[in-house]
Amino acid sequence: MAKQGKTHKEALSQVDRDREYEPAEAITLLKSLPGPKFDESVEIHIRTGLNVRHADEQLRGTIAMPHGLGKEVKIAVFAQGDNAKEAEAAGADIVGAEDLAKKIEEGFTDFDIAIATPDLMPVVGRLGRILGPSGKMPNPKVGTVTMDVTKAITESKAGKVEYRTDRTAIVHLVIGKKSFPEQQLLENYAAVIEELQRAKPSAAKGKYLRTITVTSTMGPGIKVDPSRTRDILGEATPAAA
Questions:
Q1: Mind listing the pLDDT tens digit for each residue in 162-181?
Q2: Contact, 165 vs 53, CB < 8 A?
Q3: Which of 60, 93, 131, 150 could staple 136 via S-S, CB 3.0–4.6 A?
Q4: How far apart are alpha carbons 93 and 201 in whole angstroms?
C-alpha cells in the first residue's frame, strides 16, 4: 500500500490541477504517468449543464468506440428457440429465458451487456430493480432490445457502449486501456465528444459541456479544456500520430 501511495503521489505531482489541457496533451500526459503493474483502464468523466430532472434534458445513447475498449465484453442474451441459437452462434456468453432471469434474481451479474428479443421483455421487465441501477437493462432506444441479435452482439463485442447522464448530470465512460497507442485513445476520446455534441438535447440551456476529466483506474484526474470539441485529432502531437 505504501508503494502504491508513493506512486500515486508521484503521478499527482506531474499534473497541474489548475490547468485545462488540450485533449492530445492530456492523453500524452496520462500515458506518461507512473502507475501500477496492471493495464489500467482510461476513463472520461464529463459534467454537463443539463437539468436531468427534466425529461427533455435527458441524455442517453450509444457510442461505437473506433478502437474498442481493450477488454473482453461479456454479453447475456434473453432469447429462445431459433433466436437463442442465433445468439449462441454470434458469440453470446450466456443465453437463456426464464432460467437466465432466475439466475440473475439469485445474484448472477457477471456480464457487461444484456440484450433481449422483444418477446422476452415481459420476463426481463421484472429484473429492472437489478439491471437498471447497473445500466444493464435492455432498452430499444440503444439497440439492446432487438430481433437482430447477431448485429447487437457483434457491435457490442466490437466496442459499442451505452452512455447516460447520472443523477448529477455527469457522463462516465471507459475509452480504452492505458496500453493503447496515444492516437487510438485520442480517437476514442474524439468519438465520445462528437457523439455527445450530436446528441445535445434541444432544451439544453447555458454551457453544455462544463468540465471534462480523463484519468486511469488508479491515476490522478487530468482536466481537459471542454471548449476543444473540434479538430481534436488535428491537435495530436507527432508522438501520438
A1: 899 999 999 999 999 999 99
A2: no
A3: 131
A4: 35
Integer Cα distance of 130 and 133 in angstroms: 7
From the number of C-beta atoms within 10 Å of its C-beta (0-12, 13-18, 19+), residue 23 rates as buried
Do residues 63 and 175 make contact, with C-beta atoms less than 8 angstroms apart?
Answer: no
* CA–CA gap between residue 186 and residue 115 (Å, rounded): 29
What is the pLDDT confidence band of residue 72, given thresholds at 50, 70 and 90?
Answer: confident
Beta bridge partners of 161: 63
Q: Which residues contact 45 (CB under 8 A, 6 or more apart)?
A: 170, 171, 172, 212, 213, 214, 215, 221
Read off the pLDDT of residues 4-23 as tens digits, 9 standing for 90 and up: 578 888 898 999 999 999 99
Judged against a pLDDT cut of 80, whether residue 66 lies above it is answered with: yes
Q: Helices (DSSP H) in 110-148: which residue ranges?
A: 121-125, 128-131
pLDDT tier for residue 239 given thresholds of 50, 70 and 90: very low
Tell me the Cα Rg of the chain. Answer: 19
pTM over 0.85: no
